[in-house]
Design goal:
single chain, Immunoglobulin-like, 2 domains, 256 residues, six-stranded mixed β-sheet, five-stranded antiparallel β-sheet, 11 strands, globular, alpha+beta, 23% strand
Length: 256
């Protein structure tokens, strides 16, 4: 079993699982060997480790004592038998982050730590969902094959970003803006910064087959679509847009 995707790189999911030591021994060896020989994946791996270290140094250290105190106060009997200081390391960093998010504040409240977690670590993510006329709805993962006429939509966790743009580079290299659809500029995120935002655009895929790359551009100020297009042309593997964070994901479009 190979750990690389159709473009010969590690998927974001594989890199995350490698960080969490959740791959098999063979997959771990393959992934590490690939990182040693691939400049793009090595850069992504180093960036992920840097984010992880920042989370542990600045967020985890500040929020864990508060989590312990609140959970022990509300569930004293449970933690008499299972001490949190032993549970958290066993769960791993990603689960620890989820614990912090779950217990840092009560319903309908947002604390300074909540906001901070929204800016650091693995906070900025996006998901892709597809709908097929005779196949129902499903989540688009690294090995999902999409077809012309499938409709896709996006769910974004934007951190503290104030603007969002979703672009695409199809199998022939054509650049398009998927959200806000056909726009020349990113869209403001209305209201308070949400944890998870379902974007309004639904895109029906055309008949261009091959690997298509999605780019989600999150920023504090509006970003022009032309700037994103230029960034992709300058560095297709890891486009950089000034003042913005660029998240990428790929899928393969096959014939119906």
């Amino acid at each position: 079993m190979t750990v690389t995707n159709a473009r010969g790189h590690l998927s974001s999911e594989t890199i995350d699982l490698l960080l969490l030591s959740a791959l098999s021994a063979d997959e771990t060896n393959q992934a590490k060997s690939h990182i040693d020989g691939c400049g793009l994946c090595k850069q992504r791996w180093l960036e992920l480790n840097e984010d992880s270290q920042k989370f542990k140094q600045y967020v985890f250290a500040r929020t864990l004592p508060q989590v312990e105190a609140r959970v022990k106060a509300s569930q004293q009997g449970f933690f008499e038998r299972f001490k949190l200081q032993f549970v958290v390391p066993a769960l791993g960093l990603a689960t620890a982050a989820a614990l912090v998010l779950t217990f840092s504040a009560g319903p309908g409240t947002q604390t300074e730590d909540d906001v901070y977690i929204g800016v650091k670590g693995h906070e900025s993510t996006f998901e892709v969902f597809a709908q097929r006329e005779q196949g129902g709805s499903f989540t688009v993962k690294g090995d999902t094959k999409l077809k012309p006429k499938d409709r896709i939509r996006f769910v974004v966790s934007p951190g503290q970003a104030k603007y969002v743009l979703v672009a695409s580079v199809d199998g022939k290299g054509a650049f398009s803006v998927y959200h806000p659809f056909g726009s020349s500029e990113s869209e403001p995120i209305a209201g308070q910064v949400p944890r998870r935002l379902e974007l309004g655009s639904t895109v029906e895929l055309d008949d261009t087959l091959g690997t298509e790359r999605l780019l989600v551009v999150l920023s504090d100020a509006p970003v022009k679509a032309e700037a994103v297009k230029a960034a992709v042309a300058a560095n297709p593997g890891a486009p950089k847009v000034e003042g913005a964070k660029v998240l990428t994901r790929e899928f393969v479009k096959v014939a119906p």
